[in-house]
Design a protein that fits this description.
This protein is an alpha/beta fold and about 475 residues long. The protein has 19 helices and 8 strands.
């Protein structure tokens, strides 16, 4: 949704993202070049960031060193994104059209306090961005958002848009999030996809539920999954329906039942049992070729991996657009990995390419979501199988030793091994007891007996990986 923001917001978001990912100080010259602005314009952006979001981020400045951000949390980043979205005229206009379709230009201009010429310009900008999501705002007895492909995809897009516009704690129509959550629980509606304790997943499903109610209220129904009213009349509490009518006055009871039924069955119910069984069989048959899926975790995690990959596959069928630009938290995590853990990032890229080939579907658009669900949605699969204490020694200086250290940590993280590494130079070697370490990785001979060590040349490479794992008994 970042593309819906005006240029100044996009530049400020990029500054925050770059600084949060970087682990070093960055000068104004570097940052201005990164965002494509002059240094004087960059300074204005920085002042606005400090004034508006100084409470959310720890922004450090130095006349000599430049700028850096320390410990930007995901909730803080999402809060900043929400405030930017709420301040964007493009987003305000799109929100009004989604919430109140079928109105005139005058209505929307008055609602968000813009002129007719601004309305025309902003609508054109919105439609240019919406085109990549197979969506468009048209004039048909007023202005409406439509999908070129399906009603379901429109609802998914609106859900992500609302999560950016209203945040994770509030809902449109002034509904109370906790009340909707309890309503869903009482009716056995789906609130999580992978991880029961994930508040992020719950925020998605609660907003998705509200979007379905809104669309039913506006007279739009899903073509798939229509049911007979009588099949659920005995099980759905009419009190909840009357509660929702306070906010959605045109919502029919049949529409409310359709929504409840959809969320009881889950968002993937339209795929047949045969399709799911065949996909599960194909994934299980081919998991033995997956380097991420190591033998020691197979028994414990096979069912989870099969379920995960099936969900990614079905997401690729439902979502016709690039989910990385929608799933802000996942994108944020993926970019941190790309900048700080290049080998691990490359490993995940290889995995998703492998499953794209296996499933005959392009899953690379869902790469960030894949990382997100594997690393966050089910954190127990990332528990280390062992802890290793490793000493890195180089006679080429601190920088070279730290480079080797980064390589070793990334290789071991791929194999889910927790490592405590210390990078030193040859001059510091006499100060360390080598027998306290599980392994010494060095570019020089170690003459002390009974000390396991991996001898490398001045550059480490993939050829060292097997020997490293063998020395650590992995």
């Amino acid at each position: 949704m970042i593309r819906l923001l005006e240029g100044n917001y996009r530049k400020m978001e990029k500054i925050i993202r770059i600084l949060s990912i970087s682990d070093r100080w960055m000068t104004k010259k570097e940052l201005a070049k990164q965002i494509g602005s002059s240094e004087s314009t960059f300074i204005r952006y920085m002042e606005e960031i400090k004034i508006r979001w100084g409470a959310d981020i720890t922004l450090k400045t130095s006349q000599k060193l430049g700028y850096r951000i320390e410990n930007l949390s995901v909730p803080a980043y999402l809060n900043i994104m929400m405030e930017m979205t709420r301040g964007s005229t493009n987003s305000q206009l799109l929100n009004e059209i989604i919430i109140n379709p079928g109105q005139t230009i005058e209505y929307y201009c008055e609602s968000i306090s813009i002129s007719r010429s601004s309305f025309t310009r902003k609508l054109k900008q919105c439609n240019k961005i919406l085109e990549s999501y197979l969506l468009k705002v048209i004039v048909d007895q007023g202005f409406k958002l439509i999908s070129a492909k399906s009603e379901l995809q429109l609802r998914i897009f609106v859900t992500f848009f609302f999560l950016n516009f209203y945040g994770r704690r509030t809902l449109p129509f002034q509904m109370e999030k906790q009340q909707i959550k309890e309503l869903m629980r009482k009716n056995h509606c789906q609130l999580n996809l992978f991880h029961e304790g994930s508040t992020y997943e719950q925020s998605f499903f609660i907003m998705y539920f509200v979007v379905h109610l809104m669309r039913e209220n506006q007279g739009a129904t899903l073509k798939k999954g229509t049911i007979s009213e009588g099949s659920l009349l005995r099980n759905v509490d009419k009190t909840d329906y009357l509660f929702l009518k306070k906010y959605l006055r045109r919502l029919k009871y049949s529409g409310y039942i359709r929504v409840v039924d959809y969320f009881v069955k889950s968002m993937f119910y339209e795929f047949s049992a045969e399709e799911k069984a065949e996909m599960s069989k194909r994934i299980r048959r081919n998991l033995k070729f997956c380097s991420f899926f190591q033998p020691e975790c197979k028994k414990k995690n096979e069912d989870f991996f099969v379920r995960l990959l099936m969900q990614v596959y079905f997401f690729s069928l439902i979502f016709p657009f690039d989910t990385t630009s929608l799933t802000i938290r996942a994108t944020y995590l993926a970019e941190q990995m790309r900048d700080k853990h290049i080998r691990l990032y490359a490993h995940f890229r290889a995995e998703i390419q492998f499953f794209s080939t296996l499933l005959n579907a392009n899953l690379t658009h869902h790469f960030s979501s894949y990382i997100f669900w594997v690393m966050i949605g089910n954190p127990e699969i990332n528990y280390s199988i062992s802890d290793k204490k490793i000493l890195i020694v180089s006679d080429l200086g601190t920088h070279h030793s730290q480079y080797i250290q980064a390589y070793i940590k990334d290789v071991l993280s791929v194999h889910r091994v927790q490592s405590v590494t210390t990078a030193i130079t040859e001059e510091q070697l006499p100060d360390f007891n080598l027998k306290e370490y599980d392994l010494i990785v060095t570019n020089q001979l170690i003459h002390e007996p009974d000390v396991p060590y991996l001898l490398i040349d001045d550059s480490v490479s993939l050829t060292n990986e097997d020997e490293l794992l063998q020395l650590l008994d992995l």
